[in-house]
TrEMBL record:
Catalytic activity, EC: 1.5.1.3
Organism: Flavobacterium aquatile LMG 4008 = ATCC 11947
The reaction(s) this protein catalyses: (6S)-5,6,7,8-tetrahydrofolate + NADP(+) = 7,8-dihydrofolate + NADPH + H(+)
Functional note: Key enzyme in folate metabolism. Catalyzes an essential reaction for de novo glycine and purine synthesis, and for DNA precursor synthesis.
Protein name per Swiss-Prot or TrEMBL: Dihydrofolate reductase
Pathway: Cofactor biosynthesis; tetrahydrofolate biosynthesis; 5,6,7,8-tetrahydrofolate from 7,8-dihydrofolate: step 1/1
Keyword match Transferase: yes
Amino acid sequence: MITLIAAAAENNALGKNNDLIWHLPDDFKRFKAITSGHYIIMGRKTFESFPKPLPNRTHVIITRQKNYNPENCIVVNSLEKAIEICPKDEDVFVIGGGEIYQQSIAIADKIELTRVHSTFEADTFFPEIDTAIWELAQEEFHAKDEKHLFDFSFQTYLKK
């Protein structure tokens, strides 16, 4: 199963200047719990936004750059090749960025979205979720608190 996992604002904003716009510790915990032990597919800029590779996950990086070879990562030059090298009988997660989400939404089976209930200025966006194709299967609201500056909801979409 191919799952897109992201945190996006009401206006689908994902980030700006290769960084997240918000800090939501519960979203990080959920991301870690869902993706640990799995293959994660991402673009090069997303990979480079991490201080170091994420533990307990196999990183598959899509880039057009020749000779790009970060340690302990798989590097490919297309989404098709990224999916090809992932195990067919395991869950695979697409973790960004905007261009990779755009390319993969049509072939995804599931979307795990943290919807941040605000709008932000951004330069990277999550694709529009077409409700004719996707059905909201589960939603869990979280109010802002001392650790979270914004209300947010964990949403799970399944392809109809």
